[in-house]
Design goal:
6 helices, single chain, seven-stranded mixed β-sheet, Double-stranded beta-helix
């Protein structure tokens, strides 16, 4: 039996309560009728994975997950990626943090930030695009959220590419962009605040190794220039692609609730974060999935 046939059979055999509701026309799907605090059957795992490939972003609401649960669910999507987790103190109510889990938080205890990416908004980016083998997937589970703000926006690189005209698609074919690590700067002006020691070159258009679909693979926060192109032309083209890929029709905006779990495909989507009150606590648990191959 082919892989496609096996996936189709798994979807048919998935438990009756499992349902998939698209969140927007181009990106995002809510998965209903499943409690991820329990072991997930192989049939349900296959159906979830297929929906993820189809929609790039999956949302599971009202989950009550332990760190062990989050680790187990992450395994549905692949092999864990090594974490470059900053040192932190434990947040109140936690006796430990498992090695594969990263804290995304603005909480400060004894004057020390307990997690990474603590404050403010972040422009659209692909996780770890500054590495030679970027992460395949990211999972984020909400433990504490502010009363407003801190929303996450997800943009479909696939839809953005599909909507380009034939002339632009031809122009982009074979182009490669240089991407820098700039997470330490939530807003980048031109080419300021980049870390030249952490960079990678990737195609401007990435072909998804599982679906075969093409997607724009540059972003406003981390893509700084196109190889072999004059600076003015490179800047103009990148700014056009940034604006195009962030058009509202390609974007799903997620307003977090406690107990939300989201998993997104870094190969064909980018994401951003809105600002939120610095005096309100925000804590999410993050895991990442190792990329399977270079996007060439």
């Amino acid at each position: 039996m082919s892989t496609a046939s096996m996936i189709a059979a798994a979807e048919r055999d998935a438990q009756a309560g499992l349902r998939f509701e698209p969140l927007t026309k181009h990106i995002g799907c809510e998965v209903l009728g499943i409690n991820l605090g329990r072991p997930v059957s192989p049939q349900d795992a296959a159906a979830i994975y297929r929906a993820w490939l189809d929609h790039a972003v999956l949302l599971f609401r009202d989950q009550d997950l332990t760190q062990e649960d989050l680790i187990r669910v992450t395994g549905i999507f692949g092999e864990f990626a090594p974490l470059g987790r900053p040192k932190h103190t434990l947040p109140s109510g936690f006796s430990k943090i498992l090695p594969n889990i990263m804290l995304i938080s603005n909480i400060r205890e004894n004057g020390e930030t307990i997690g990474a990416l603590p404050d403010g908004e972040m422009m659209f980016h692909h996780d770890t695009i500054h590495r030679d083998e970027p992460h395949k997937a990211t999972l984020l589970y909400s433990v504490e959220i502010p009363t407003y703000g801190g929303d996450t926006l997800f943009a479909s690189g696939t839809a953005a590419y599909d909507m380009l005209d034939a002339t632009m698609k031809k122009k982009l074919a074979g182009l490669r962009a240089v991407n820098f690590y700039v997470y330490n700067s939530v807003k980048r002006n031109d080419k300021q605040a980049v870390d030249a020691s952490s960079q990678a070159v990737h195609p401007v258009v990435r072909t998804h190794e599982e679906t075969g679909c093409k997607a724009l693979y540059v972003n406003r926060l981390m893509s700084v220039r196109i190889e072999g192109m004059a600076a003015a032309e490179s800047d103009a083209l990148l700014n056009f692609l940034f604006d195009h890929s962030e058009r509202p029709e390609f974007v799903y905006t997620h307003i977090w609730r406690k107990g939300d779990l989201i998993v997104w495909d870094n190969r064909c989507s980018s994401h951003a974060r809105t600002d939120f009150p610095s005096d309100q606590r925000r804590l999410l648990l993050r895991t990442t999935v190792k990329g399977t191959c270079r996007p060439y």
